[in-house]
Design brief:
The protein is an alpha+beta fold. About 20% of the residues lie in helices and about 35% in strands. The relative contact order is 0.15.
Length: about 200
Protein backbone atom coordinates (compact mmCIF):
# COMPACT_ATOMS: atom_id res chain seq x y z
CA UNK A 1 0.00 0.00 0.00
CA UNK A 2 1.41 3.38 -1.03
CA UNK A 3 0.88 6.20 1.44
CA UNK A 4 -0.18 9.56 0.10
CA UNK A 5 1.88 12.53 1.19
CA UNK A 6 0.25 14.40 4.11
CA UNK A 7 -2.26 11.60 4.60
CA UNK A 8 -2.55 12.27 8.35
CA UNK A 9 -3.24 15.99 7.77
CA UNK A 10 -5.81 15.26 5.06
CA UNK A 11 -7.58 12.81 7.38
CA UNK A 12 -7.79 15.42 10.17
CA UNK A 13 -9.12 18.08 7.76
CA UNK A 14 -11.79 15.65 6.56
CA UNK A 15 -12.73 14.75 10.15
CA UNK A 16 -13.04 18.45 10.98
CA UNK A 17 -15.24 18.87 7.87
CA UNK A 18 -13.38 21.97 6.78
CA UNK A 19 -13.50 22.13 2.97
CA UNK A 20 -12.78 25.81 2.41
CA UNK A 21 -9.07 26.41 1.76
CA UNK A 22 -9.55 30.15 2.42
CA UNK A 23 -10.79 29.37 5.91
CA UNK A 24 -7.85 27.02 6.57
CA UNK A 25 -5.43 29.63 5.21
CA UNK A 26 -6.83 32.38 7.45
CA UNK A 27 -6.96 30.09 10.48
CA UNK A 28 -3.38 28.85 10.08
CA UNK A 29 -1.64 31.82 8.49
CA UNK A 30 -0.41 29.54 5.68
CA UNK A 31 -1.04 31.00 2.23
CA UNK A 32 -3.91 29.45 0.27
CA UNK A 33 -1.75 28.05 -2.54
CA UNK A 34 0.46 26.20 -0.03
CA UNK A 35 -2.64 24.84 1.76
CA UNK A 36 -3.90 23.60 -1.61
CA UNK A 37 -0.56 21.91 -2.37
CA UNK A 38 -0.52 20.26 1.06
CA UNK A 39 -4.11 18.98 0.82
CA UNK A 40 -3.61 17.67 -2.72
CA UNK A 41 -0.47 15.75 -1.64
CA UNK A 42 1.76 17.79 -3.95
CA UNK A 43 3.98 19.25 -1.22
CA UNK A 44 5.14 17.68 2.04
CA UNK A 45 4.18 19.73 5.11
CA UNK A 46 6.97 21.02 7.30
CA UNK A 47 6.91 20.53 11.06
CA UNK A 48 6.25 24.27 11.47
CA UNK A 49 3.23 24.03 9.15
CA UNK A 50 2.09 20.88 10.97
CA UNK A 51 2.06 22.85 14.23
CA UNK A 52 -0.12 25.55 12.65
CA UNK A 53 -2.54 22.97 11.23
CA UNK A 54 -2.71 21.13 14.58
CA UNK A 55 -3.50 24.36 16.42
CA UNK A 56 -6.17 25.32 13.88
CA UNK A 57 -7.74 21.84 13.89
CA UNK A 58 -7.42 21.61 17.71
CA UNK A 59 -5.69 18.22 17.58
CA UNK A 60 -2.33 17.03 18.95
CA UNK A 61 0.59 17.62 16.60
CA UNK A 62 1.24 13.88 16.31
CA UNK A 63 -2.15 13.48 14.58
CA UNK A 64 -1.17 15.62 11.58
CA UNK A 65 2.31 14.14 11.12
CA UNK A 66 2.54 11.26 8.68
CA UNK A 67 4.05 7.92 9.67
CA UNK A 68 6.88 8.53 7.20
CA UNK A 69 8.30 11.29 9.44
CA UNK A 70 10.97 9.62 11.56
CA UNK A 71 10.13 9.65 15.27
CA UNK A 72 12.12 8.45 18.28
CA UNK A 73 10.60 7.95 21.73
CA UNK A 74 12.47 9.56 24.61
CA UNK A 75 13.47 6.54 26.72
CA UNK A 76 15.24 8.39 29.55
CA UNK A 77 15.64 11.88 31.03
CA UNK A 78 18.70 13.55 32.55
CA UNK A 79 19.40 16.77 34.42
CA UNK A 80 22.55 18.67 35.37
CA UNK A 81 23.31 16.19 38.16
CA UNK A 82 23.99 13.57 35.46
CA UNK A 83 21.53 11.11 36.98
CA UNK A 84 19.49 9.42 34.26
CA UNK A 85 15.89 8.54 35.11
CA UNK A 86 13.14 6.66 33.27
CA UNK A 87 10.08 8.55 32.10
CA UNK A 88 7.16 8.90 34.49
CA UNK A 89 3.65 7.86 33.51
CA UNK A 90 3.05 11.50 32.46
CA UNK A 91 6.13 11.69 30.21
CA UNK A 92 5.40 10.72 26.64
CA UNK A 93 7.76 12.66 24.40
CA UNK A 94 9.02 12.00 20.91
CA UNK A 95 11.89 13.53 19.02
CA UNK A 96 11.00 13.91 15.36
CA UNK A 97 13.71 14.17 12.74
CA UNK A 98 12.04 15.38 9.54
CA UNK A 99 15.24 15.29 7.46
CA UNK A 100 15.85 11.58 8.06
CA UNK A 101 14.57 9.11 5.49
CA UNK A 102 14.76 5.95 7.57
CA UNK A 103 14.61 5.33 11.30
CA UNK A 104 17.80 3.98 12.89
CA UNK A 105 18.09 1.75 15.94
CA UNK A 106 18.87 4.65 18.27
CA UNK A 107 17.63 5.57 21.74
CA UNK A 108 17.09 9.10 23.06
CA UNK A 109 17.97 10.60 26.44
CA UNK A 110 16.55 14.11 26.85
CA UNK A 111 17.89 16.89 29.07
CA UNK A 112 14.79 18.85 30.11
CA UNK A 113 16.40 22.09 31.30
CA UNK A 114 18.83 22.42 28.39
CA UNK A 115 16.60 21.11 25.55
CA UNK A 116 19.48 18.80 24.70
CA UNK A 117 19.25 15.34 23.14
CA UNK A 118 21.74 12.51 23.67
CA UNK A 119 21.63 9.51 21.31
CA UNK A 120 22.94 6.02 21.95
CA UNK A 121 22.78 2.73 20.07
CA UNK A 122 21.72 -0.25 22.22
CA UNK A 123 23.98 -2.62 20.26
CA UNK A 124 27.11 -0.50 20.77
CA UNK A 125 28.29 -0.91 24.32
CA UNK A 126 31.49 0.01 26.09
CA UNK A 127 32.46 -3.68 25.79
CA UNK A 128 32.74 -3.46 21.99
CA UNK A 129 33.97 0.09 21.36
CA UNK A 130 36.59 2.64 22.34
CA UNK A 131 34.98 4.96 24.88
CA UNK A 132 37.58 6.47 27.21
CA UNK A 133 37.18 10.28 27.27
CA UNK A 134 33.81 9.98 25.56
CA UNK A 135 30.37 10.76 26.96
CA UNK A 136 28.53 7.57 27.91
CA UNK A 137 25.26 6.38 29.36
CA UNK A 138 26.40 4.33 32.38
CA UNK A 139 24.04 1.91 34.10
CA UNK A 140 24.63 0.46 37.56
CA UNK A 141 22.50 -1.90 39.62
CA UNK A 142 20.72 1.01 41.34
CA UNK A 143 21.20 4.12 39.19
CA UNK A 144 22.13 5.36 35.74
CA UNK A 145 24.36 8.29 34.82
CA UNK A 146 25.52 10.37 31.90
CA UNK A 147 29.20 11.21 32.10
CA UNK A 148 32.57 11.31 30.38
CA UNK A 149 34.32 8.01 31.07
CA UNK A 150 37.84 8.54 32.37
CA UNK A 151 38.75 4.92 33.13
CA UNK A 152 37.25 1.45 33.02
CA UNK A 153 38.34 -1.82 34.56
CA UNK A 154 36.73 -4.62 32.54
CA UNK A 155 37.47 -7.24 35.24
CA UNK A 156 35.72 -5.39 38.08
CA UNK A 157 33.36 -3.34 35.86
CA UNK A 158 34.54 -0.27 37.75
CA UNK A 159 33.98 2.96 35.81
CA UNK A 160 35.33 6.38 36.73
CA UNK A 161 33.52 9.22 35.02
CA UNK A 162 33.21 13.00 35.18
CA UNK A 163 29.99 15.00 35.02
CA UNK A 164 29.17 16.27 31.53
CA UNK A 165 27.58 19.49 32.75
CA UNK A 166 29.29 22.13 34.90
CA UNK A 167 30.86 20.91 38.15
CA UNK A 168 32.88 18.18 36.42
CA UNK A 169 33.15 16.11 39.60
CA UNK A 170 34.56 12.62 39.29
CA UNK A 171 32.54 9.56 40.31
CA UNK A 172 33.44 5.89 40.58
CA UNK A 173 30.74 3.24 40.13
CA UNK A 174 30.41 -0.44 39.32
CA UNK A 175 28.59 -0.57 35.99
CA UNK A 176 26.29 -3.25 34.66
CA UNK A 177 26.50 -1.82 31.14
CA UNK A 178 27.74 1.32 29.47
CA UNK A 179 26.72 2.83 26.11
CA UNK A 180 28.80 5.47 24.30
CA UNK A 181 26.80 8.55 23.31
CA UNK A 182 26.83 8.53 19.51
CA UNK A 183 25.54 12.09 19.07
CA UNK A 184 24.28 15.02 21.09
CA UNK A 185 22.73 18.30 20.05
CA UNK A 186 20.64 21.20 21.23
CA UNK A 187 17.24 20.99 19.56
CA UNK A 188 17.09 24.73 18.88
CA UNK A 189 20.01 24.38 16.44
CA UNK A 190 18.60 21.48 14.41
CA UNK A 191 15.52 20.55 12.41
CA UNK A 192 14.72 17.86 15.00
CA UNK A 193 12.02 18.73 17.53
CA UNK A 194 10.62 17.29 20.75
CA UNK A 195 6.87 16.85 20.70
CA UNK A 196 4.25 15.45 23.03
CA UNK A 197 3.03 12.04 21.91
CA UNK A 198 -0.28 12.30 23.74
CA UNK A 199 -3.31 11.55 21.64
Amino acid sequence: MILKMNEALIKQVLLARVKNHDLISKGTGIDKSTVSLHLSSKRQISVDHAKLYAKFLKVPLIKVLDDNIVKYRVVRYVDDSGVVIPPTEDDDHLVITPNEIQKKNLKVIYHLERDLVYWYHPEISCNNSEFINHPCYIKTKDKAYLGIVLSHNPKTHSVTFADIQPKYKEHKVKSTICYPITAQFYLKYTSAQKIDNSL
